[in-house]
Amino acid sequence: MSKIRLLSPRLANQIAAGEVVERPASVIKELLENSLDAGAQQLQIDIEQGGVKLMRVRDDGNGIEKDDLPLALSRHATSKIYHLDDLEAVASLGFRGEALASISSVSRLTLTSNTGESAAWQAKCEGRDMETELAPAAHPQGTSVEVRDLFFNTPARRKFLRTEKTEYNRIEDIVKGLALSRFDVGFHLRHNSRLIHSFRKAEQTLEKERRVAQICGAGFMDNAVAIDIERTGLRLWGWVALPSFSRSQADLQYFYVNGRAIRDRLVSHAVRQAYQDVLYHGRHPAFVLYLELDPANVDVNVHPTKHEVRFRDGRVVHDFLYRSLHHALADVRPEHQLAKSE
Ligand code: ADP
Ligand code: MG
After folding, report:
1. pTM of the shown model
2. Out of 129, 164, 199, 326, which could bridge 274 as a Cys pair, Cβ 3.0 to 4.6 Å?
């Protein structure tokens, strides 16, 4: 008898889930990104017991057609790219078509949606063979995804979860990171039925700065300079803290490339270099920065979590970042030099 067998869909999804769904915060990241991709304006996030018991994201986006509900939960099913060419210039946060399939394979997932054209429908998924049950439901235009009992069927993964507080804090970090990427969207976060954060839609500069202060603290905003520099197809804007607001940890560093939060060695290096002669050794700068460039010049499909990017011309990007930040900090040299506080 043949020894090679195809994995069942559920097992294949559970294996894929290992890459995408590490902890409750990774679920929240995927759900919020889906809502943003669906054009949502308001996001309600409900968490119970650090997300292990329940995570619910409710949005007012485009919604999902009844017939698409089972597809949304299937692996490699996406509405965001259809051709390889689309990947060249992908504008959405998602595109791999894996998140909902992965999450539903390690939790009890309910997807309820209304496209605004007819009644709402609900799909539940915790079946052994990834079968989905459809039923009529009540829901205004938009989508709710409810994820219960994360890792209930994968005890090995559940063991790696930390305390409720730690898992909740990571969720909060994800929400803050996304809230800084989309000032035009309202984010409302509840934990154990208590409203913890309400970031209202921010259009004017003052409203945006208020959101940044809510997330990074008033101290950051009081010590930050706003920058907005554009050169040959590259734009860098945001807020950089003066050296007088340096940190003992790299905990206030937000960097977005075309709206996507990323960690990148080239970027870190350019920033570090710009701050080099104004910061004490071992101190870390604080910043909220947005780099915008032609999507064709940056590859986001490097890693399943999409935290990494690859620039077509890394040197040019590095140079531009270094020069822009160096320039922004130039006004504070040398009198703020090596200033130290927290
Ligand atoms: P991806 O985001 O990579 O396409 P997902 O598994 O996260 O893959 O989602 C699968 C599909 O389900 C999406 O392409 C989208 O069409 C649909 N979808 C998921 N969440 C939402 C939502 N909140 N609103 C509208 N459509 C959604
Ligand atoms: Mg997605």
Report:
1. 0.90
2. 326
